[in-house]
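All the exercises in this workshop are built on plain-text protein records. An example says more than a description, so a record of this kind follows:
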Amino acid sequence: MIDFLNLAYLRNGSAPQQLAFRELVHLRLMERLARWDPLLVGTVPIGIDVSGSDLDVICEVDDFEEFAQVVERFYGQQPAFCLTHKKIRDRWCIVASFQGEHFPVELFGQAVPTQGQYAYRHMLVEHRLLEELGDAFRQQIVALKKAGYKTEPAFAKVLGLEGDPYEILLSLEK
């Protein structure tokens, strides 16, 4: 099992994972956001990234203003920088995005511990399914992602799951 809490797995991973590791180190993202317990989540860590996939970093943020100031100070000059506040599933969050050298980057913060956030929990379920169901399953997911599907809906479609894919995947945690 991969230890997603330690980015060292990226160093010896696929070419995109190695590039992601170098990008994160170059941007000093984990270092600069350390007080918010940042975690890389999404498709790159589990090897189902496609062209244009971003680096998703989630953070536990209680003080949006402080987080916004730090993010703007370090990344506000990056191409396509954008910072927004929005409500997702009745919970306020802050989202910053910008273009890194090799990947689009999205920083997501909400007042939930990172290991309890949907993105991390989804990634763990998806990783387990990819490991259990093998390469043919992985290729189906990647094909749907290349066709424009978001990750959770792609998993739900291939698995034949009905309902909200973001909720239904969480039912597979156990």
User: Anything to note?
Assistant: The chain has a mean pLDDT of 96. The first strand starts at residue 39 and ends at 41. Residues 118-146 form the longest helix (29 residues).
